Amino acid sequence: MKVKITFLKGRRCKIRAVEREKRKTQNLYDYDSNSIHAEPIPNRKKESIKNAYERVLRLLQRRGLRPKLHRLDNEASQLLKEFMTDEDVDYQLTPAGLHRRNWAERAIQIFKNHFIAGLSSTHPGFPLNLWDQLLPQAILTLNLMCPSRINPKLSAYSQVHGPFDFEKTPLAPPGIKVLAHEQAEGRESFAVHSVRGFYLGPCLNHYRCYKIYSVDWFPHNIKMPTATSTDILLATAKDLTAALKQTQRNPILPPPNTDTRKSIANTHRDIFQHNKTSSSSH
Q1: Which of 3, 17, 190, 213 makes the best surface tag, with the fewest CB within 10 Å?
Q2: How far is CA 258 from CA 246, 253, 261, 270, 279, in A?
Q3: Rounded to an integer, what distance in angstroms lies between the CA atom of residue 275 and that of residue 117?
Q4: Which CATH number fits domain 2-214: 3.30.420.10, 3.30.70.240, 3.30.1370.100, 3.40.50.150?
């Protein structure tokens, strides 16, 4: 599988294929700008959480928003606490079970509802293991609808990133099926001029360009190899024969020295030999 950035003017740049290891999101909420952030992380280990927090913190600092107080739950690791201390960010732990004390809890629910709505609009054939590739546009569109507390005339996105120009970077529904233009030097003489893919989001650093996911394998005119009925029967007979030969402390089958157990084993051995002989004759 490959994720490709496709430029509408015919230029394409391939991104290195990566493992789909993102399984969770780390959500952060900035009160002053009223902006919601979600970073994909592979697990809930302290290193992953700290790295996600650092990425959002650096973003806010570059935009002139320096957090002074961080409210978080009791799951904060010592590594994260030490990092916040080094960055001169004070922190408070909310009491156990009182999530309403943390403004981020409400923001998490808002983000979940918005992201689920986006996933529900994807094409039926869209691979859901690419959900983390849809996060940037989900965060962008969500913060465009939230007003900033610093300046209510601005959106939360504009407060952090500056004005958003829809003419420069148009948006489309996430996960829809699209046709991406194939550059002339990258295709055969009489090949089609486009490839099928799925829309992931805009390329914010390029003019009217989008990130497109396309798959270059499993053509429709080549059948995938499947097991025949004989193969399935032989595999079943092997599994049953191996199960009959096993010795367990509390076996489900009768003991191996009984006539019933020997009869079952002989029956399956005969079936296995018969099918093996039939396969050889063909």
Answers
A1: 190
A2: 14, 10, 6, 19, 32
A3: 53
A4: 3.30.420.10
Q: What pLDDT band is residue 260 in, cutting at 50, 70 and 90? A: low
Cβ atoms of 102 and 71 closer than 8 Å: yes
Are 212 and 4 in contact by the 8 Å Cβ rule? The answer is yes
* CA dist., res. 76 & res. 46, Å (int): 8
Task: List, in order, residues 6 or more apart from 255 with CB less than 8 Å away.
Answer: 261
Taking the whole predicted model, whether its pTM rises above 0.90 is answered as no
- Give me 174's structure tokens: 């996430």
pLDDT at 261 over 70: no
Q: Are 195 and 180 in contact (CB under 8 A)?
A: yes
pLDDT digits (tens, 9 = 90+) for 166-217: 999 999 999 999 988 888 877 788 888 888 889 999 998 889 888 988 866 5
Query: What count of Cα atoms within 13 Å lies in the side-chain half-sphere of residue 58?
Result: 8
Residue 256 has pLDDT above 60, yes or no: no
Rounded CA-CA distance 31/160 in Å is 12
Q: How far apart are CA 251 and CA 229, in angstroms?
A: 30
